[in-house]
TrEMBL record:
Increases the formation of ribosomal termination complexes and stimulates activities of RF-1 and RF-2. It binds guanine nucleotides and has strong preference for UGA stop codons. It may interact directly with the ribosome. The stimulation of RF-1 and RF-2 is significantly reduced by GTP and GDP, but not by GMP. Gene3D superfamilies: P-loop containing nucleotide triphosphate hydrolases (3.40.50.300), Peptide chain release factor 3, domain III (3.30.70.3280), Translation factors (2.40.30.10). Keywords: Cytoplasm, GTP-binding, Nucleotide-binding, Protein biosynthesis. The keyword Membrane does not apply. This is Peptide chain release factor 3. Belongs to the TRAFAC class translation factor GTPase superfamily. Classic translation factor GTPase family. PrfC subfamily. Transmembrane segments: none annotated. The lineage of its organism: Bacteria, Bacillati, Bacillota, Bacilli, Lactobacillales. It is found in: Cytoplasm. Residues 16-286 form the Tr-type G domain.
Length: 532
């Protein structure tokens, strides 16, 4: 048996307490509200509304470093950390709306679980589907929170069915709403075999939880038993028990079964039950596989991690960037020597920050599962591995995502080609945007998954490379790659623009689905593929 050192035992204990996850949702489903509630439980913020504050102002979120400085803690940052029930929880932000970008997808590469918040009046929406796809590809557990039960929404059964159908995942309702909107009485908690009252009132001594007997009913006299909704929920619960999926922890961990919780984030109802149950099943960090198939255990003493996001400061006075590192093994200490796997370059990590640390100046006790930020002066690219010690480690590079929005770019001043090319190439390598060129004319086209990426691009070109760019929107396009062997340049047209990516691989930018279908009908033998 391996003789465990004291340090290793401590590291193991620390790593096992980590829970690192992202909350995904369609804009307005309630992600911010629920995040605030979770932070409140953890005592990380004193007052609800603090996270909300970041939503105002166009570039408000990018000003987070400034806001953090003023507040002393980083409630507004992209990573929020708090302790609850002897666990250390890291929530990674996945921005929606106009802040949606490839970073949003990449963030999902750095988490061990995902929580999906759904507006119960709306059901599964488009953006959630895309994010969900990435979670599925990674096979991480997904927990669902059906929100806004205090409002009239859709039938719970219909919501769960839609979830299973649209996302192709099995669902297991952990609890079930008793009524909704004005008639919302509470939750029938199948998992804990109890009822959780929405508004505990005097008539039942203000009790929040009512225990249920072995038949899943309230024992003895109770006011709730006189409600027709009570009979209804008993029937529904029976149906779920008989006809629903079986509960399986393994299926949850494999990402094949999503536990579904109902609740109302705004009224802070069902959130704590959700959090506690979630913590019971969400996994602690596990091993990461490197490109040689080697398993890197989170409790390996030497530090390793990968960069999943680089955030540039939008403030022209601060040119620094922050590279976000997901720690995969060991613990991080200020000043450690690491190797950057891509270049084999050795470096000392002295200037770093841990998110949500009491004192931003020091990184204390960051271990596998945690996220740290490294001040970056241009050394890092997205997907880079850094590791401590002699044993070389290189994690798989992060997947590329199929861009959906495209613009043509050119330098405003044709005399400044050099800085234009330098800037574009660096930003592409860094993973800020994707670059394409048209055949023959070599016009530069950049692609993104969110509009914000273009704005950041334009801003950084000007501020970091002194290159003013002119951007002409092409709008949204469907990008599909084609095998070069099958390509005939005459296949391109105005409705399916032929371009090549930065590796020289040919692809078409289809105007719409109709154009893509028309193409496939015309060239049935041609295989078209997309990235993720
Ligand atoms: P996000 O865009 O997903 O972060 O959504 P927000 O948390 O900002 O919520 C969007 C809107 O829905 C806000 O006006 C919230 O106050 C509201 N909201 C969030 N949760 C609930 C809820 O449980 N019930 C009701 N009625 N409104 C909610």
């Amino acid at each position: 048996m391996i003789n465990e050192t004291k340090e290793n035992k401590e590291l193991k204990k620390e790593v096992e307490s980590r829970r690192t996850f992202a909350i995904i949702s369609h804009p307005d489903a309630g992600k911010t509200t629920i995040t605030e509630q979770l932070l409140l439980f953890g005592g990380a913020i004193r007052q609800a509304g603090t996270v909300k504050a970041k939503k105002s102002g166009k570039f408000a979120k990018s000003d987070w470093m400034e806001i953090e400085k003023q507040r002393g803690i980083s409630v507004t940052s992209s990573v929020m950390q708090f302790d609850y029930d002897e666990k250390r929880i890291n929530i990674l932000d996945t921005p929606g709306h106009e802040d949606f970008s490839e970073d949003t997808y990449r963030t999902l590469m750095a988490v061990d679980a995902a929580v999906m918040v759904v507006d119960s009046a709306k059901g599964i929406e488009e953006q959630t589907k895309k994010l969900f796809k990435v979670c599925r590809m990674r096979g991480i557990p997904i927990f669902t929170f059906m929100n806004k039960l205090d409002r009239d929404g859709r039938e719970p059964l219909e919501l769960v069915e839609e979830l299973e159908e649209v996302l192709e995942i099995d669902a297991y309702p952990m609890n079930w709403p008793i009524g909704s909107g004005k008639n919302f009485l509470g939750l029938y908690d199948l998992y804990h075999n109890r009822i959780e009252m929405f508004r505990p009132d005097e008539s039942n001594q203000g009790e929040r939880f009512i225990p249920l007997n072995n038949e899943g009913a309230i024992e003895g006299e109770h006011k709730l038993k006189r409600e027709s909704l009570y009979d209804q929920v008993l029937e529904e619960a029976m149906l779920l028990r008989e006809a629903g999926n079986d509960f399986s922890e393994k299926a949850i961990l494999d990402g094949k079964l999503t536990p579904v919780f109902f609740g109302s984030a705004l009224t802070n109802f069902g959130v704590q039950t959700f959090l506690e149950t979630f913590l019971q099943f969400a996994p602690a960090p596990t091993e990461h596989i490197d490109v040689d198939g080697k398993e890197v255990s989170p409790t390996k003493e030497e530090f390793s991690g990968f960069i999943f996001k680089i955030q540039a400061n939008m403030d022209p006075k601060h040119r620094d960037r922050i590279a976000f590192v997901r720690i995969c093994s060991g613990d991080f200490e200020r000043g450690i020597d690491v190797t950057l796997a891509r270049t084999n370059k050795k470096m000392k990590l002295s200037n770093s920050t841990q998110f949500m640390a009491e004192n931003r100046e020091s990184v204390k006790g960051a271990v596998a599962g945690d996220i740290i930020g490294l001040y970056d002066t241009g050394n890092f690219q997205i997907g880079d591995t850094i590791y401590e010690g002699k044993q070389a480690i290189k994690f798989e590079s992060l997947p590329q995502f199929t861009p959906e929005l495209f613009i043509k770019v050119e330098p405003k001043n044709v005399m400044k080609q050099k800085s234009f090319h330098k800037g574009i190439n660096q930003l592409v390598q860094e993973g800020a945007i994707q670059l394409y060129k048209t055949y023959h004319t070599e016009t530069y086209i950049i692609g993104a998954v969110g509009q914000l990426q273009f704005e950041v691009f334009q801003h950084r070109m000007l501020n970091e490379y002194n290159s003013e760019v002119v951007m002409t929107s092409i709008g949204s396009r469907i990008a599909r790659w084609i095998d070069p062997e099958q390509l005939d340049e005459n296949m391109g047209s105005s409705r399916n623009m032929l371009v090549k990516d930065r590796f020289g691989r040919p692809l078409f930018l289809f105007e719409n689905q109709f154009a893509e279908r028309w193409f496939s009908d015309k060239y049935p033998e041609v295989q078209l593929t997309s990235l993720l």
